[in-house]
Amino acid sequence: MTDKSPHLTVIEQDSVNMVQFSDRKILEELSIREIEDELFALVSSTPAIKLLLNFSNVEHLSSAALGMLINLQKEVKGAKGKLKLSNINPQIYEVFKITRLSKLFEIHEKSADAMSKF
């Protein structure tokens, strides 16, 4: 099953919801809020969700987007689900390392690697 919105494409595969971002730059507050609403709705509608965020299209993330990811992680954990990230651009990954978010999130180089770890 595939769901598409202006910001996200969600593909359900082997009981994992893989989210592909449409935006190359996730910087604007309104876009971030819309993405957050869509992701939280997905989490609340799927018990014990297995969620994979694939960042292969994303070139820039704002600090507000990082905050949204932290909130999403808490929401997924509270719903007894699992969240994994994959395909993060090397410059963005540096930000995850500097802010120590690489310790908070389970990050995989490729989405196939992440899929096999659920």
List the main descriptive attributes of the protein structure presented here.
8 strands; two-stranded parallel sheet; single chain; Transcription Regulator spoIIAA; 5 helices; 27% strand; 118 residues; six-stranded mixed β-sheet; alpha/beta; globular
Describe this structure in words.
The chain is 44% helix and 27% strand. The strands form two sheets. The chain has a six-stranded mixed β-sheet with strand order 1-2-3-5-7-8. Strands 4-6 form a two-stranded parallel ribbon. It has five helices and eight strands. The mean pLDDT is 95. It has one domain: Transcription Regulator spoIIAA (2-Layer Sandwich), CATH 3.30.750.24. It is globular and about 30 Å long. With 118 residues, the protein is an alpha/beta fold. Helix 1 packs parallel to helix 2.
Q: Gist?
A:
By secondary structure, the chain is of the alpha/beta class.
